[in-house]
Amino acid sequence: MRAWLEIEMDNLIFNINKIREKVNNREIMAVVKANSYGFGAKETVRYLSEHGVKAFAVACLDEAMDLKEAGIENEILILGILFPEEIEVANENNIQITVGNWKQLEYIKKNTLKVGIHIKIDTGMGRLGFLPEEGERVIDYCLENAINIMGIYSHLSDADGFNKESDDYTETQIKKFQIFEKYKDRVKYLHILNSGGILRFNEKISGNIVRAGICMYGMIANYRVEDLKRVFCVKTKILSIRTVEDDSFISYGRKYVLHKGETFATIGMGYADGIKKEFSNKSYVIIEEEKCPIIGEICMDMCMVKIPESIKNKISLGTEVIVVRDDIIEEINIEHKCSWDILTGIGRRVYRVYKENGKPYLVTR
Ligand SMILES: *Cc1c(COP(=O)(O)O)cnc(C)c1O
């Protein structure tokens, strides 16, 4: 294999169990949109459901159908907004949908669809849903018209802001959502907590199920969570090693000069594999436990790293290179640092290697 993403499934389960403790044993809805953040939706969902996770959330109809076609029988909620033809498909396939406008409700009523819906309330995210003031009218409409409301939910926009203003904003969002607590006996699920909410606002009463995304992988925003375990590690191999005999330009555009006598290695991953262009001259890889800076522009299929003297004699062609890991994401200083963006950007050419007890049991691509 040229490049691969190792996923420690037992640590994923360890993290899920910790998350469950943190939210006082409320149910967990695992958010597995975008191919489960790049970790492979089918295998992640299969494994999680075998370990007691009952509900899953995806972004769109195709993602939900992929899970259905893979034989997943758990509850699935689509977080995006569907149009009439798509609502019909969700209805036929017992997939729960998000409702964020009156047109959807009127369509469901007119066609007497039994599709399970979750009413989306915008408490301050500024993306989808009804305003809280309108929410009660929406819910009454559903109850009067025998529309199958399974949930009411909202989304936090700044629960991982880590400052007082952000935290005040989050508390306001949670407070606005609390007016819907009165429906808790009429709908199955009330939910607002995402990873930031789960880890930082789990003391507040807010719903009976939580939507766990990035925290399953041991992170909150771009930070590692102390009592969670490492789940992922992206690796490749050294393709070439050279010590330069003169000052030499490295990569496209002649933007980096390696000095006479210094050593570089070329490794088998580029931006098409998910090493963001922005990492050029900013991030590092780990070889033989040493940090090696990425030098010069990252290419589509390869990039170059500087080899410190200390490991020069320990490496050879084929030596393993750690390219993306939680500690690297935490440490690098790039302008648009976003762990979700980095993880979902891991490319299709990168194999997914699922491990249990430290041993691979499945390799997919
Ligand atoms: C993506 C998403 C989540 C999960 O967010 P994390 O921060 O990764 O936990 C939860 N809810 C909604 C509506 C989302 O779009």
UniProtKB/TrEMBL annotation:
GO annotation (BP), single: D-alanine biosynthetic process
Membrane-spanning segments: none
Stated family: Belongs to the alanine racemase family.
Highest classification ranks of the organism: Bacteria, Fusobacteriati, Fusobacteriota, Fusobacteriia, Fusobacteriales
This protein's pathway: Amino-acid biosynthesis; D-alanine biosynthesis; D-alanine from L-alanine: step 1/1
Modification N6-(pyridoxal phosphate)lysine occurs at: 33
Name of the protein: Alanine racemase
Residues of the signal peptide: none
GO cellular-component term (any): cytosol
GO molecular function, one term: alanine racemase activity
Keyword Isomerase: yes
